[in-house]
Design a protein that fits this description.
Elements lengths: L1 E5 L4 H12 L3 E6 L2 H11 L4 E5 L5 H9 L10 E4 L15 H29 L2 E6 L12 H20 L5 E8 L6 H5 L4 H7 L8 H12 L9 E4 L20
Parallel strand pairs: 1-2, 1-4, 2-3, 4-5, 5-6, 6-7
The structure holds NADPH dihydro-nicotinamide-adenine-dinucleotide phosphate and 2-hydroxyethylsulfonic acid.
2-hydroxyethylsulfonic acid (8X3) binds next to loops.
């Protein structure tokens, strides 16, 4: 079984690479940071993985890479569309539009390019599994979640749409929707501000990359007739709040 993981240089993706490798799967590791890819590739055993430096936003390179994989890594069984980010926490009326574009280009367009490039092979072999990484942010709104939440709602609906298109085939599709997890996610969201990032996980126990990797492994190891459509998981200590009410004075009708 060959598992392709986007965003393997950190967080969920790296935990998946480690767990799947330990379980005997061959892996294709994708990310932009070359040094990290090289280090991970060596750690996992060079013959058992293929590390590829690739920006999933680069449409042409995504298709080139998938169409020109070496013979022993060509027949992908599982695609884990994990590469993604939240960038910024600002309200919609002040945020830098570049941050929104980056999230849409990576979380939506990059995921769609990877899917479109890999899926014909799965259909041809009539087996395989696509696992998308959504988020609770695609299910529930919170201030500052604006476009990030929008991209993850896209991922959820796209996954359900894929399930419809894949009907009658033996190709499976799952959307994993995690809550807070301690990876480099918050460091990226706050543009490298470690203090702000650490504050997110203060005095509570978030999910870990290992929790997500184990959930993905469970999803792909179900019997042939079972498709896990969606899994939403949160830390025990994350939850919901009341609807907000702005007590800014009565509004004249
Ligand atoms: P990390 O920041 O730790 O990892 C993100 C990974 O995505 C990195 O390996 C990064 O690699 C890769 N990546 C980002 N942009 C690109 C790109 N353009 N091309 C290729 N790879 C890219 O965060 P997480 O592990 O937490 O995030 C993984 C996924 O999980 C994301 O989709 C995120 O939205 C989602 N998620 C995270 C949650 C959390 O609380 N941590 C909760 C719910 C969902 P590199 O920089 O080397 O390219
Ligand atoms: C990120 C999860 O809870 O920080 O996708 O929005 S949360």
């Amino acid at each position: 079984m060959i598992v392709l993981i986007t965003g393997a240089t950190s967080g969920f993706g790296m935990s998946c690479a480690e767990l799947f490798s330990k379980k005997g799967y061959k892996t294709i590791l994708i990310g932009r940071r070359k040094e990290r890819l090289t280090k991970l590739s060596k750690k996992l055993g060079l013959k058992k993985n293929l590390a590829i430096q690739l920006d999933v936003r680069d449409k042409e390179e995504v298709f080139n890479t998938i169409n020109n994989l070496p013979r022993n890594f060509k027949d992908i069984s599982v695609l884990i569309n994990n590469a993604g980010l939240a960038w910024g926490f600002e309200p919609a009326y002040t945020v830098d539009i570049k941050k929104w574009e980056t999230m849409i280009d990576t979380n939506c367009k990059g995921l769609v390019y990877m899917t479109r490039a890999v899926i014909p092979g799965l259909i041809k072999r009539n087996k395989g599994h696509i696992v998308n990484i959504g988020s609770v942010a695609g299910n529930y709104p919170y201030p500052g979640g604006n476009v990030y939440g929008g991209t993850k709602a896209f991922v959820k609906q796209f996954s359900l749409g894929l399930k419809s298109d894949l009907s009658g085939t033996k190709v499976k599709i799952t959307n994993i929707e995690p809550g807070m997890a301690d990876t480099e996610f918050s460091l990226v969201r706050f543009s490298g501000n470690k203090k702000k990032a650490d504050n997110v996980y203060k005095k509570m126990t978030p999910l870990s990359g290992k929790d997500i990797a184990e959930t993905i492994l469970w999803s792909i190891e179900r019997p042939a007739h079972v498709n896990i459509n969606r899994i939403e998981l949160m830390p025990l200590q994350q939850g919901f709040n009341f609807f907000s009410v702005s007590r800014t004075g009565k509004i004249k009708k």
